[in-house]
Structure to design on (621 residues):
């Protein structure tokens, strides 16, 4: 009898499948990521739409948004699909199969009053399409994964009827919650790209105002549209271009802070001094005397000259040009298949070394720890893949041996493997000889008829950023920073055979565009692997085509002058953050990083295989 009643109630309360639903009015929409949009419809469905990348395979799209490439069949069926994916199509994703971090981001943007509490999850009904709000079945589906848990939710809220009203507060008991909303998992396991930059782990219910140095959820504002709204996206920023200095406006949400939600997220600044400088300018521009007392909903004015291109108005020439370059680079980024990295040449580079320690905190030398990660990755590639591996540096005493201990002893004997070798002393010379060496290895590969797209350069580093930031970040060679020619003519360079064989480096515009697209594709694959393996990832824009520091934009020389089309500088953690620093001092975490990079490299070439069998969306959907 109970099963019959539950089925009947489910039929009455369960929304129709997204793929079969007729167009519905939109209550709120939000850009969750540059490729993923979430909407709350008037009939209380969560509509998730993803825009494919150029050349995407179904399995790769599935892995990005669900964490499991094998779910591509499920997604294709949901969309009634057939054929190949194109960037002109949109893919709908069931909310319950999204990655946990994306589920949380969707909820945070569409239900900004929700929060985690000690007893579970506190959901505030949005309402807005009529008298009644979301059904308990809706709420059970979103937060527990099964609508049939509505009865347990009602039992936990004895004064609540089957119907809800806007503003009702519903407690979802913690034992029912899906993993995305379990408090421990949120804080430690799944660090999303757009997640909060947290300094403390205070109860969200106790955060009632922003703090310049405290917890900060840096999620875009969900835009409430009302019953008459259209389904087009509304940006989380609004703009005023009438004055002498145009500016954008962002409303601070509960728990957000100027330094993270504005200075870091919207301007791209990550170094402590740069963040402080931008914060000071924003405070002056807004006439803010006490950042610790800014109320929720405060309209922060951000000078448009500070904004990253993607946050400028849609018709801004800088944004238009940036988006056009990205589209062109994606079109040129065509890589071959290489199952298990068969036939791929991987050039590995560990940053700094020798007397150049790199970033140092609490006796942790960047050079030693990234070299250890490089050695672990080299071993994985040589033992498990079909790749041919070269390294730019080597320890004269230890070679590529991997120590047994957690904390590493300081090493100053790294050399650049040029002919003759260079004992690393001058940091600038060490950097420049690396790309000359990489270019020589690349030319040899070309003479051996290796396709240029099957050569990969990966430089491994550890960042020194604002202490609130955590996780990996990847830099790629943005086309506008690398086109042109460059050479070194000092004797220390000309003494090396690799320099003499081709001292001048030239990048055409087309080569630079292709390199940006290929490199972005690889960087995203590695970052995806980090997230899949629950490793920390930089919370804002973890793949970047330039470094912003001291008011300058540039690309690191090791990838700027490099001829290898597919090249990435990977910052594996932020040594300026105490938690990141503690993790990198353990061999377990360093091995975990090496394995994630390996998986990212393998996936980068493997994903193309799945495109043969994977269908795409039928035209007109």
């Amino acid at each position: 009898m109970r099963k019959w009643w539950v089925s009947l109630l489910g039929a009455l309360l369960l929304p129709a499948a997204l793929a079969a639903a007729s167009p519905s009015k939109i209550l709120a929409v939000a850009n969750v990521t540059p490729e993923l949009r979430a909407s709350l419809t008037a009939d209380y469905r969560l509509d998730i739409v993803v825009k494919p990348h150029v050349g995407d395979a179904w399995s790769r799209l599935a892995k990005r948004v669900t964490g499991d490439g094998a779910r591509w069949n499920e997604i294709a069926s949901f969309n009634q699909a057939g054929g190949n994916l194109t960037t002109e199509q949109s893919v709908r994703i069931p909310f319950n199969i999204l990655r946990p971090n994306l589920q949380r981001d969707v909820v945070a943007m569409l239900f900004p009053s929700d929060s985690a509490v000690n007893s579970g999850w506190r959901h505030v009904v949005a309402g807005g399409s009529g008298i009644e709000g979301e059904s308990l079945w809706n709420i059970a589906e979103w937060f527990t994964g099964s609508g049939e848990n509505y009865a347990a939710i009602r039992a936990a809220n004895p004064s609540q009827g089957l119907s809800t009203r806007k503003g009702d507060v519903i407690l979802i008991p913690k034992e029912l919650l899906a993993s995305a909303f379990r408090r421990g998992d949120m804080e430690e396991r799944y660090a999303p790209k757009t997640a909060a930059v947290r300094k403390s782990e205070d109860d969200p219910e106790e955060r009632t105002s922003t703090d310049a140095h405290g917890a900060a959820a840096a999620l875009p504002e969900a835009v409430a549209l009302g019953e008459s709204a259209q389904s087009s996206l509304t940006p989380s920023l609004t703009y005023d271009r009438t004055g002498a200095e145009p500016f954008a406006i962002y409303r601070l949400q509960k728990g957000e802070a100027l330094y993270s939600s504005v200075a870091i997220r919207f301007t791209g600044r990550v170094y402590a001094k740069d963040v402080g400088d931008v914060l000071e300018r924003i405070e002056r521009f807004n006439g803010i005397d006490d950042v610790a007392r800014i109320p929720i909903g405060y309209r922060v004015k951000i000078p448009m000259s500070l904004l990253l291109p993607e946050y400028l108005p849609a018709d801004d020439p800088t944004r238009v040009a940036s988006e056009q370059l990205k589209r062109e680079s994606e079109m040129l980024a065509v890589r071959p298949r290489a199952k298990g990295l068969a036939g791929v040449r991987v050039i590995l580079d560990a940053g700094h070394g020798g007397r150049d320690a790199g970033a140092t905190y609490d006796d942790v030398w960047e050079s030693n720890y990234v070299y250890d990660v490089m050695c672990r990755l080299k071993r994985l590639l040589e033992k498990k893949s079909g790749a041919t591996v070269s390294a730019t540096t080597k320890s004269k005493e230890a070679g590529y041996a991997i120590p047994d201990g957690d904390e590493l002893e300081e090493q100053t004997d790294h050399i650049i493997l040029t002919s003759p070798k260079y004992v690393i002393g001058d940091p600038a010379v060490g950097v420049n000889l690396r790309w000359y060496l990489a270019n020589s290895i690349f030319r040899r590969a070309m003479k051996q008829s290796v396709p240029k797209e099957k050569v990969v350069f990966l430089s491994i580093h550890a960042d020194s950023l604002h202490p609130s930031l955590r996780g990996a970040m990847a830099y790629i060679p943005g086309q506008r920073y690398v086109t042109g020619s460059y050479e070194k003519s000092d004797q220390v360079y000309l003494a090396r055979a690799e320099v003499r064989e081709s001292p001048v480096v030239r990048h055409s515009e087309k080569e630079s565009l292709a390199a940006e697209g290929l490199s972005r594709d690889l960087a995203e694959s590695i970052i995806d692997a980090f997230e899949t393996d629950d490793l920390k990832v930089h919370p804002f824009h973890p793949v970047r085509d330039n470094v912003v520091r001291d008011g300058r934009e540039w690309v690191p020389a090791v990838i700027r002058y490099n001829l290898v089309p597919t090249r990435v500088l990977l910052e594996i953690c932020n040594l300026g953050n105490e938690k990141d620093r503690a993790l990198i001092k353990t061999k377990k975490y360093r091995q975990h990083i090496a394995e994630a990079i390996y998986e990212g490299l393998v996936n980068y070439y493997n994903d193309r295989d799945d495109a043969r069998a994977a269908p795409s969306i039928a035209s007109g959907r």
Observations:
- DSSP finds 19 helices and 26 strands in the chain.
- The CA atoms of residues 231 and 449 lie 51 Å apart.
